[in-house]
Amino acid sequence: MTAAPPPGSFDTLGTPGQAETRVQRSRFVAYAAPVADEAAARAYVDEIGRRHHDARHVCWAARFGLVDDPREIRADSGEPAGTAGEPILRALRQAGITDCVGVVVRWFGGVKLGTGGLGRAYGEAAALAVAAAARRTVLLGVRAELVFPYALQKTVRHHLDGHEGRIESEEYGAEVRWTVWLPRGRAGELRERLVEASADALAWRDLGESAV
Fold first, then answer.
1. Into which CATH architecture does domain 9-133 fall?
2. Which residues are 99's β-sheet partners?
3. Cα-only R_g, the chain
4. Which terminus, N or C, of the chain has the lesser number of Cβ atoms within 10 Å?
5. pTM of the full predicted structure?
């Protein structure tokens, strides 16, 4: 079983994956790839469709967002309802990944597989493509700019390390200016700790959300 990603993060694919299976003379070529949004997923499916323009079916599914509340889409693309898109989507769910698309291309081999056989074939092909791809964990967080006196460097670094933060850039002029990244959910607590520890000598400016 795949370990759950850390809180405030999600698992996706780091590279595309591809696999091929044959069931009762039908050929299934499956692809899995990381995508940022629905537009990117549909563009990827269109690309696969153009690459295999002679195929009878190009079925797919995609998931976006956090694993505990993802947005999901699927398409049977001419196969009986529920026999292609849903099994592909189930393979993505079972892998625990989002921001990804699974595509399975089928060439009919002359032997009907039945709805159960189709579902198994599409799901197994998609799972093989996912397994062939590298995975990566996306950490969700926020960026902030901190401006403070030189005397506070050790204090700021200590609290930043204690909240799993990292320094992205450093500037040294009349004061110290750091751009930092923090995991989602840790920024508020760190800000309170730093304001208290610095006796209001530290300035904090939110720079928005950021994923790494």
1. 2-Layer Sandwich (3.30)
2. none
3. 23
4. N
5. 0.76
